[in-house]
Design goal:
Strand content: under 5%
Oligomer: single chain
CATH architecture of the largest domain: Orthogonal Bundle
Order of helices and strands: HHHHHHHHHHHH
CATH class of the largest domain: Mainly Alpha
CATH superfamily of the largest domain: Hypothetical protein, domain 2
CATH topology of the largest domain: Endonuclease III, domain 1
Helix content: 55-70%
Mean pLDDT: 96
Length: 219
């Protein structure tokens, strides 16, 4: 997505305002090592971070190692993560990912995008989250439902596919902001730019948002 000079200034202003509005924006998932972050991120699909944190509080104590997940009875693991939804598929992916980590990566969660993407249940969003927050490796921008919605409403992308949205964002957002902007967008999405009824009248970037007028008219 190519921007002209006017659009570049608009995007710069949006990022500047939102970063100042949400200076404490950071990942909400609780974890203490790369394995915990990987599991929590897999569980967060179609589930709130709050619910995931409730589940992982017990889960991480019960399964403290990669071996523990790999050896866990599948049905038991399913029940342990059931409140996060889609628990059968998630349990299967976590157990298989643990096996691959043990057999192919020496028991350590991979540190590269290419290797992480080999794990079941891991797409670019999850890989980006793990790389950035566990290893400090910033290769891209994780696109969740909030980032997707905010990016589309602010006119930062016309795409619907998360990978294409990520490419658009990487082209217009400075690399130094890739690690923080997703969480800024997430905070903005939760507090102001909600899915059903965005609070446009309270939005700090309302004047810069091409979608604001249509939502204000509806309200």
């Amino acid at each position: 997505m190519k921007l002209d000079a006017k659009e570049k200034r608009r995007v710069e202003k949006i990022l500047e305002i939102l970063k100042k509005t949400y200076p404490e924006a950071r990942i909400a998932l609780r974890f203490s090592n790369p394995l915990e972050l990987l599991v929590a991120t897999v569980l967060s699909a179609q589930c709130t971070d709050e619910r995931v944190n409730q589940v992982t509080k017990k889960l991480f104590k019960k399964y403290p190692t990669v071996e523990a997940y790999a050896q866990a009875p599948l049905e038991e693991l399913e029940q342990d993560i059931r409140p996060t939804g889609f628990y059968r598929n998630k349990a299967k992916n976590i157990k298989e990912a643990a096996r691959i980590i043990l057999e192919e990566f020496g028991g350590q969660v991979p540190r590269t995008m290419k290797e992480l993407l080999r794990l079941p249940g891991v797409a670019r969003k999850t890989a980006n989250i793990v790389l950035t927050n566990a290893y400090g490796v910033v290769e891209g921008i994780p696109v969740d439902t909030h980032v997707r919605r905010i990016s589309q409403r602010l006119g930062l992308t016309r795409e619907k596919d998360p990978n294409k949205i990520e490419q658009d964002l990487m082209a217009i957002i400075p690399r130094k902001d890739w690690a923080t902007i997703p969480y800024v967008f997430i905070d903005h999405g939760r507090k102001i730019c909600r899915a059903r009824k965005p609070l446009c009248e309270q939005c700090p970037v309302r004047e810069l948002c091409p979608a604001a007028d249509q939502f204000l008219k509806k309200n």
